[in-house]
């Protein structure tokens, strides 16, 4: 109708809309997708890659980019893998999905299960889950159980239950999760025209670093990239089993998403580190919170504390002179800052009370400004 009318007035400007393609369709050739896999989507993937001038100035690196995964539908990178895992669960005839989670996996599983019409059960470590993530899982209708133990305990229980066949396990030990998550590496290569020279990434259960490395390997095979990046993974100092080379019984960090003492994909992380000639290192909570505040106040990007571990690690490497000549670096910001309002409130000042007049606001804020 509109097209016809525009033609009548001599304006041949209408072109049909280019609809966004669901992640599992866009990368079907690289994913375990069959004709009978449902084309499930909530609009995941295709997240922004944002240049970071303040980080470039601080580190002296020519190009620093941030992969803003908090802009996925449920606010974290988990959606990339979850869409594939839940679609495959539906294809396989599952009626329910199950996961252990520090919060983001639970939020994502609950959303995709709701969309696909499956039941969802999530096991969370008691008292260690950020408020926003808990709220998401509940509102999406998951059955939320608070386990009296750590994330590692919750994953053990979930694996045991899944082995009994009660539900499909959608933690990153499910290979479909890794397949979906590797698409972030493809997107980075497409955006930059090649892989970066180094990729900085937080490491918790180590599924994501495993997935990215698989993605970069496949990207070179598929000629999406000529090189592969060094993989620089960062754990929180109080939860750094891979760095220390031993399980951590009581992991502790402000970055609750990576408070994990016995990563399920430990081997995958070592492989990514060694094959890429990269490193897995620890950053303190102070370094994580400094990077978190810097990202918000200088780059305008609000991520969650665990995500800031990637930037904390990059800043630490720059300060200690171990950038190894990297000129193009990508830091993965895994989740949105809105997930963890308590972490933000600990850093932020409470709003000042002021009378509801222009004069009062002027006196308080602009009194010394030259107009
Ligand atoms: C925001 C955020 N960042 C990083 C991670 C760590 O990812 P992985 O457990 O795959 O290493 C998680 C895991 O829950 C997360 O939620």
Q: In order across it, which strands form the biggest sheet?
A: 1-2-10-7-8-9
The helix count comes to 16
Question: Compounds present?
Answer: pyridoxal-5'-phosphate
> What is the helix content?
40-55%
Regarding quaternary structure, what we see is single chain
Assign an overall shape: globular
* Total beta strand runs: 10
Give the C-alpha Rg.
Answer: 22 Å
Low-confidence stretches: none
Order of helices and strands: HHEHEHEHEHEHEHHEHEHHEHHEHH
Give the terminus-to-terminus CA distance: 53 Å
Strand content: 5-15%
Describe it for me?
With 371 residues, the chain is α/β, with parallel strands linked by helices. It contains 16 helices and ten strands. It has helices at 2-8, 23-26, 53-59, 78-91, 104-116, 131-139, 151-163, 175-181, 183-192, 207-221, 241-244, 266-275, 285-299, 305-319, 341-347, 358-366, and strands at 49-51, 63-68, 96-100, 119-125, 143-147, 168-169, 198-202, 230-236, 279-283, 328-333. A six-stranded mixed sheet has the order 1-2-10-7-8-9, with helices on both faces. A four-stranded parallel sheet has the order 5-4-3-6. Helix 10 links the parallel strand 7 and strand 8 (230-236). Helix 4 packs parallel to helix 5 (104-116), helix 10 crosses helix 12 (266-275) and helix 13 crosses helix 14. It is globular and about 70 Å long. The mean pLDDT is 95. Pyridoxal-5'-phosphate binds at residues 76, 102, 104-105, 172, 202-208, 257-258, 304, 306-307, 334-335.
């Amino acid at each position: 109708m509109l097209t016809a009318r525009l033609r009548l007035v001599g304006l041949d400007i209408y072109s049909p809309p280019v609809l966004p393609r669901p992640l599992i369709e866009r990368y079907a050739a690289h994913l375990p997708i069959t004709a009978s896999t449902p084309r499930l989507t909530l609009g995941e993937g295709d997240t922004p890659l944002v240049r970071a001038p303040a980080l470039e100035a601080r580190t002296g690196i020519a190009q620093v980019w941030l992969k803003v995964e908090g802009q996925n539908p449920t606010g974290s990178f988990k959606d990339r893998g979850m869409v594939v895992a839940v679609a495959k669960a539906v294809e396989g005839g599952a009626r329910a999905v199950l996961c252990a989670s520090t919060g983001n996996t639970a939020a994502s599983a609950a959303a995709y299960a709701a969309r696909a019409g499956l039941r969802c059960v999530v096991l969370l470590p008691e008292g260690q889950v950020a408020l926003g993530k808990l709220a998401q899982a509940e509102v999406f209708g998951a059955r939320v159980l608070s386990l009296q133990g750590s994330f590692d305990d919750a994953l053990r229980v979930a694996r045991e239950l899944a082995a009994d066949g009660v539900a499909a396990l959608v933690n990153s030990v499910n290979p479909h999760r890794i397949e979906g998550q590797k698409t972030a590496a493809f997107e980075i290569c497409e955006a930059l025209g090649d892989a970066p020279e180094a990729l900085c990434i937080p490491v918790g259960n180590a599924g994501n670093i495993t997935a990215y490395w698989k993605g970069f390997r496949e990207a070179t095979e598929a000629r999406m990239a000529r090189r592969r990046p060094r993989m620089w993974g960062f754990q929180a100092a109080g939860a750094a089993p891979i760095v220390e080379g031993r399980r951590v019984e009581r992991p502790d960090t402000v970055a609750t998403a990576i408070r994990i003492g016995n990563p399920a994909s430990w081997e995958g992380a070592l492989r990514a580190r060694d094959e890429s000639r990269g490193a897995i290192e620890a950053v303190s909570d102070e370094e994580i919170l400094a990077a978190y505040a810097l990202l918000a106040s200088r780059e305008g990007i609000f991520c969650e504390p665990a995500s800031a571990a990637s930037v904390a690690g990059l800043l630490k490497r720059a300060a200690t002179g171990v950038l190894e000549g990297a000129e193009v670096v990508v830091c993965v910001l895994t989740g949105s800052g809105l997930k963890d309002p308590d972490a933000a409130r600990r850093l932020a000042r409470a709003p000042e009370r002021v009378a509801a007049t222009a004069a009062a606001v002027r006196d308080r804020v602009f009194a010394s400004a030259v107009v």
